[in-house]
What we know:
single chain; 2 domains; mainly alpha
Amino acid sequence: MLPYSPWLAWLIPIIGSLSVPIIAKINGKLRDWLSFTFVATSSIFTFSMLPDVFNGRSAELQVQWIPYFNLSYGVLIDPLSVFMASLVSFIGALIMLYSIGYMAHEEGLTRYYFFMLLFIGGMIGLVMANNFFQLYIFWEIVGLCSYALIGFWYKKPEAARAGMKAFIVTRIGDVCLLLGILILYLNTGQLTFSAVRNSASPLSASLLTTVALLFFGGAIGKSAQVPLFVWLPDAMEGPTTVSALIHAATMVKAGVYLVARTAIVFPSLSSEYLLAVAGVGAVTAFMAATMALATFDIKRVLAYSTISQIGYMMFSLGLGTSGGWLASQFHLMSHALFKALLFLCAGAVIHVTGTRDMRQMGGLKRYMPVTYVTFIIGALSLSGVPPFNGFWSKDLILEECFKLGGYMGSFLFFVGTSTAIITVAYAIRMTALTFMGEEPNLLKGKKLCEAPNVMTVPLIVLASTCVASGFLQPYFIGFMSQILPRANE
Length: 489
């Protein structure tokens, strides 16, 4: 591990965001490339922690802040936090590189890079936090950045409304999370994960269920689950790079992380709580998949797809088994990689065609071969076709549902399988409308060509990971399993 890695992993992007306005006054191109460099450097520090954690060397570093209230700030180095931080920084770096080409001719780029860096730094800080108070601070930073970036083109009424809608709807979940944290603190006097888990005055069963459900309410808002999913499709009014970051590595994954962390901090969760998590996830997965099948806006298709795939992760966590927990985290990684790829491919198509309506696309495979091939890989991963990563992670979730058996396991297996079939249908439809056939009259006469290298390189890297990461399943399971015995200490 590099010195001070747990701190520098999230401090570098945040400090970088504060320096962006100064750098912009020197040179715009320098601002763009340094913004990418800040996130790439952060990824070096996050990846440097992986070998130590893989070898079982987890740690918790903290500094006392307000002793009277027993509040501290610190970082947690364990498989879940380091895995999430590495994923956020890796995908964040690729999106920042892609942004250099995609956003080149936009106005307000200093504001854009400021909030993108703060967004990435905030998300890494959230997953590295060792206590609920610090987690909540970064949770709110992530929410603020999403509002600013979704409404980046604020002169468009639709974008301004979408940003405000995201802010207001997710506030409902944020209030739930805050209430849960307050109840936890008032009853235990602790907010640090390890102290809460080992508290001398543990919560009663009913109070524990209440706190866990309030935390889940926060996750429903951030991860766009039923009934608070309505903000995410409208969030597509923001730049495609913002959409990719929200869907693949930050905002919507924060809720899944919170539910996964809750299962570690509170290992004895009630059946009522697990039923709520599984039920919401199952309903969301199926419903959002059907919505994706009925829209023609390529970004909205991907948005509904994200809502559906997050549903898979939630109902896998709702199984209440170690296998279900591990399967959800493996699908989180798979989804992050193929959804980032699909959004960036969609961005390249929109960049060239000037439209998001798939009915006005078609025939693009001959003009954009790299984008076409990488999009196919992303669509196959989304569809769960072997040997791509989506196959291995979805298969693992369905296997855990089958193992659970009973009414709940059978129901979730049926929902998961049905949703997978619908997913294949909308993935084929999306690919065919965008790339197959002849280009429509609206595109004839336009200069159709492949996106610049700074945009295609991230596509190739992500496509490669979609192929390779599925075969890492045994190593991933072994790595993440280290955290599970601690839940029963």
